[in-house]
Amino acid sequence: MTQPSRRTASRPHVTCHMLGSVDGRIVQKIWALKDSARYFEETAEKIKVDAWIVGRTTMQEFSSKRQRPRTGTFEVPPGDFVAKKSKTYAVAIDPSGKCRWDSDMVSTEHVIEVLTEQVPAEYLHHLRAKGVSYIFGGKTELDLALVLRKLGELFGMRRVRLDGGGHMNGTFLKAGLVDELSLVLAPLADGTIGTPSVFDVEEGYGRRKATHFHLRSVRRFEKDFLWMRYEVTSSRSPSASAKTPRK
Ligand SMILES: NC(=O)c1ccc[n+]([C@@H]2O[C@H](COP(=O)([O-])OP(=O)(O)OC[C@H]3O[C@@H](n4cnc5c(N)ncnc54)[C@H](OP(=O)(O)O)[C@@H]3O)[C@@H](O)[C@H]2O)c1
Description:
Elements: E1 13-20, H1 36-44, E2 51-55, H2 56-59, E3 89-93, E4 105-106, E5 109-115, H3 121-130, E6 133-136, E7 142-143, H4 144-155, E8 159-162, H5 166-174, E9 180-185, E10 212-221, E11 225-234, E12 243-244
Parallel strand pairs: 1-8, 1-9, 2-3, 2-8, 3-5, 5-6
Antiparallel strand pairs: 4-5, 7-12, 9-11, 10-11
Bound molecules: NADP nicotinamide-adenine-dinucleotide phosphate.
């Protein structure tokens, strides 16, 4: 038995947007596409959302590359921290607090870190000093349904876009929290075994069933690319939990 994605009024609508090869891979290292970011960005910006959300590995491509000293004693007030309200947001799923920041913005989006309560006070102090907002999504594991609810309640988000990578997409899919898939299919096969794919949920076959989609639209562009928009019709095995284990 599978269940439809659990969309309730209390959480934002979730669209997962990805650029994938025909074999579902997402790391572009050997793709040799000219101006490759364009295929992702130009389609992404047609999906009107209040925030894009990425996993920690993907966000580290945008966060600070500088190392900082971590010594000293730090005291920070308990609870979530809303540094400011913005029109749009960039959200990092970063349970251990590994992304460092030079500013509170990625392009035009205000940064929100999604953390577990295990992150050290020094890291919270760093975020406050840089004006980066943060929310807690659980004590030691992230409850993604809670995370979405908080993004709605604290920042007024109604629609969000999951922009990868495969690990993060997979955990939202497993938790039954993806409403739509927007997939740009690049006309190439990558073939690299063991690299991230559009959804990396778990290894092997357990009780989990595949997620099914209904095709809402398909558009051919740039000659050989396809942009497909799907609605999730079923997801989540009966055993799947909204709480996802930390890696
Ligand atoms: N083609 C595309 O459209 C596209 C889009 C985005 C990214 N990418 C590529 O994808 C690659 C990265 O993908 P990836 O799958 O390796 O990494 P990812 O999904 O970006 O990040 C994975 C990490 O995020 C944290 N995380 C995510 N969801 C979590 C959850 N529910 N609970 C706890 N922690 C969670 C964990 O951080 P910790 O390890 O710190 O615990 C985890 O290891 C990059 O090469 C990037 O360029 C491609």
